[in-house]
Design goal:
single chain; 40% helix; 507 residues; 10-stranded mixed sheet
Length: 507
């Protein structure tokens, strides 16, 4: 599916050595430098892992970047390491441990060393770069909504260029860029830090990685919290078909909110009027890209990225209002952010992992039919999600995904919003059914992707109680959603932290 423009993240800076607390021994880690903007409370290093964990003695290895922010409590309170993954696949872990630790509830922070890692192919790990930065940044991208033969050919040509670039850059690595292999990397991280078990916290794609890790290494799991949960039965093409409806539904929620604040945004006083303004803008940008570089596909991508959390709704509304008022795309481009080398690396890993994890259609006609069908049902966003991406030409692994049954796992906490467009609620229900030891905490009415930490006292207290004391509700429970945001007409800049992302919006 769609090769979406990459996230707005900082380019990899020059490294410097930080003065982080050393913490407990980590016998398998070679400590070194951190990115220059990393807080001094974080320490960074690398470990070596087999390229293929099923043939660990064949001599082929990869470098995996790791980082640690030590627990703030005394040794008597320490409960080991909390390994986190923000999603993607491809969200950065190295350089984010200390900042993430600061957001955790204090009892969690006192109990755990927070450990991040970069997936194989990403960041400080052995790296995959499928395109050079200039090629990756070239815009506008082909229009994902064109169902004509020429329109589809432009998309498949772009997909082929990306796939060919991946094969040229790291042909040996590609077949082993799977969640199965990454889960074994996580176990190597555990071993390198000298821990018998880990506590794991995963968001979005990180929930699937956690489930696969638990399936392969159930005896290594102490506790596991999975937030904004992937459907383990739909990796990855089928997830996009489900997501198309969910993003369209969430766009309607956004339009309702914008209509309620028409006095601020002047985009219309009804859902239909707001969506009409959005559609008119999309069509105008597709016909004549703003500044020659911001077209219909860029507008779709920007919209999808800002539907992940209602806290981003004011930014999207303000940027659209600015475009409608002036005809200029400065606010839209500022919110989207520039394409960088770090974005390209993220996209390369994202494509490689999702393409290797499970088969996707290899016939362009399937994508063309799905694009037309989802466009009819869910508009431009549906077409964008269904359009062809690198997986059309980049399927390097023929093994089926890991089947999840939760055998041998301790109790697991799942957290899920009912209106989440990136990982729809049905996926959490499927994961809940697959993990008999799990409890599901439902955040009723919330569409925010990522609930634990900042999701309100009901959510945060439940997550902290589980991570620190192992306490779970005796049965599934429900928490209320946070109230919607207040309007803000100033518009926004790209978020400092890489947001969690789910594969099906970025294929």
């Amino acid at each position: 599916m769609l090769l979406v423009a990459a996230l707005t993240t900082a380019a990899a800076p020059d490294p410097q050595v930080g003065a982080a607390p050393e913490g407990p021994p980590a016998p398998g880690v070679t400590w070194g430098s951190c990115p220059s903007d990393t807080p001094l409370t974080e320490r960074c290093g690398t470990i070596r892992v087999p390229l293929d964990h099923e043939r660990p003695d064949d001599g082929r290895t990869l470098r995996i970047g790791v980082s640690r922010s030590v627990a703030t409590g005394p040794a008597s309170e320490r409960q080991g390491i909390l390994v986190f993954n923000f999603g993607g696949p491809g969200a950065a872990g190295v350089g984010n441990a200390a900042d993430f630790a600061k957001t955790l509830p204090e009892p969690v922070r006192r109990a755990y060393d927070v450990v991040g890692f970069d997936l194989r192919g990403r960041g400080t790990s052995s790296r995959l770069d499928c395109l050079d930065e200039a090629t990756f940044a070239r815009a506008p991208k082909p229009d994902t909504a064109l169902t004509t033969q020429a329109g589809q050919r432009a998309l498949t040509d772009a997909a082929r260029v990306f796939a060919d670039g991946c094969r040229a850059d790291a042909p040996e690595m590609l077949p082993y860029l799977t969640t199965r292999q990454i889960a074994d990397d996580v176990d190597q991280v555990r071993e390198a830090f000298g821990e018998p078990k880990i506590t794991y916290l995963g968001y979005s794609y990180g929930t699937y990685l956690g489930a696969v890790y638990g399936q392969l290494h159930p005896d290594r799991v102490r506790r596991m919290l999975l937030d904004s949960v992937v459907d383990p039965t739909k990796v990855w093409y089928d997830m996009g078909l489900v997501q198309a409806r969910a993003f369209w539904s969430r766009a309607q929620d956004w339009a309702d909110w914008v209509a309620d604040h028409d006095a601020q945004y002047h985009l219309g006083g009804t859902r239909g009027a707001v969506l009409g303004a959005w559609n008119q803008s999309r069509e105008a940008l597709a016909a004549k890209p703003g500044d020659g570089v911001f077209g219909g596909t860029e507008f779709d991508q920007l919209t999808i990225e800002n539907l992940y959390s209602d806290r981003q709704w004011p930014d999207l509304a303000a940027a659209l209002a600015a475009y409608r008022g002036t005809g200029g795309v400065a606010a839209l481009r500022r919110l989207k952010g520039p394409a960088t080398a770090d974005n390209e690396n993220f996209e390369s890993v994202f494509q490689a992992v999702t393409c290797a994890d499970a088969p996707s259609p290899d016939d362009p006609a399937v994508y063309a039919a799905d694009t037309a069908r989802l466009k009819d049902a869910y508009g431009y966003l549906g077409a964008t999600i269904a359009s062809p991406g690198a997986c059309l030409y980049l399927q390097s692994n023929t093994r089926p995904p890991v089947a999840i049954d939760g055998k041998g796992l301790p109790q697991v906490l799942l957290i899920q919003g009912t209106r989440d467009p990136a990982t729809p609620y049905t996926g959490a229900a499927q994961m809940h059914a697959a993990l008999p030891s799990s409890r599901l905490l439902t955040v009723e009415g919330s569409g925010n992707h990522g609930q634990f930490i900042g999701g309100g006292p009901c959510v945060d207290d439940a997550g902290a109680a589980y991570l620190v004391r192992g306490e779970l509700p005796t049965k599934d429970r429900t928490c209320p959603a946070l109230p919607p945001p207040e309007p803000d007409t100033r518009g926004g800049a790209p978020k400092d932290r890489e947001p969690t992302r789910h594969p099906a919006t970025r294929r």
